[in-house]
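user: can you give me the structure for this one chain? tokens are fine.
assistant: on it. calling the predictor now.
[tool input]
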Amino acid sequence: MTPAMAPRTARLKSIAPQFLVDDLDAALAYYRERLGFAVDFVYESFYASVSRDGAAIHLKHAAKTLADRVHRKEHEHLDAYVAVAGVEASHRLLRRGRRRLHPLLQRGQGALMAREVVLDGAVNVR
């Protein structure tokens, strides 16, 4: 079905990526304390939602194996694409307390890109 064929009453309102985390409490604390997210809900200590500026991220406790981590790093898997207003300020916010956030890179047509390598339950930003 093409967008022109979609019923006018059917609208996509939001999508929440689900990040797997080793430690749900630590991930919630990071999003809340470092990035300014609000905790929307926590379900039975294994699933939660955080939100900020109208965007939600779901976090699920599911430990990754060493092989999973190596594979993701070698192949630079992208967990989410995040578009922001004020990319420099957003980059500074992410860098607070960060160990492995790459510098901003200039891309075509004035776009900036940042890539975050590893954070349990965090955002890979490109």
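assistant: here you go. Strands lie at 18-21, 38-43, 47-52, 55-61, 105-106, 112-113. Residues 115 and 125 are 5 Å apart (CA to CA).
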